[in-house]
């Protein structure tokens, strides 16, 4: 825990600004934890545990909606990572079924569980707690 009030205030002000941005400005396209909507949601959820803030709460609701809209019932694990591959000097989008923690459905499900269960442990692996 950081005990410097100036640093904490600065960080919280910036998180609030980020929470007020439209999620399209985050430039995310994948549901995954590593670099996708689940990762952003995990960060906002972790902050909201300590700070009851309307902007952060609203961002949590919106990111949850976006994440749930990315559910694919006929996929192997429910969600697909979206990656880009350079094929013949052209970037192609590829949807990949994974069940791993950072790049697959396991991480996404853990974040969704944390919407309902305040104390979860996976955040420690992300150095969020």
UniProtKB/TrEMBL annotation:
One of its GO terms (biological process) is peptide modification. It holds the Pfam family LANC_like. InterPro entries: LANC-like (IPR007822). Gene3D superfamilies: 1.50.10.20. This is Nisin biosynthesis protein NisC.
């Amino acid at each position: 825990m950081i005990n410097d009030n100036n640093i904490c205030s600065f960080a919280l002000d910036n998180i609030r600004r980020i929470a007020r941005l439209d999620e399209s400005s985050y430039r995310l396209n994948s549901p995954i934890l590593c670099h996708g909507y689940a990762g952003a949601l995990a960060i906002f959820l972790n902050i909201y545990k300590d700070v009851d803030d309307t902007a952060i709460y609203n961002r949590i609701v919106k990111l949850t909606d976006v994440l749930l809209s990315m559910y694919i019932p006929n996929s192997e694990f429910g969600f697909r990572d979206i990656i880009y591959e350079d094929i013949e000097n052209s970037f192609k989008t590829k949807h990949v079924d994974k069940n791993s923690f950072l790049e697959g459905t396991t991480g996404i499900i853990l974040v969704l569980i944390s919407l309902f269960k305040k104390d979860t442990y996976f955040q420690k692996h992300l150095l969020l707690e």
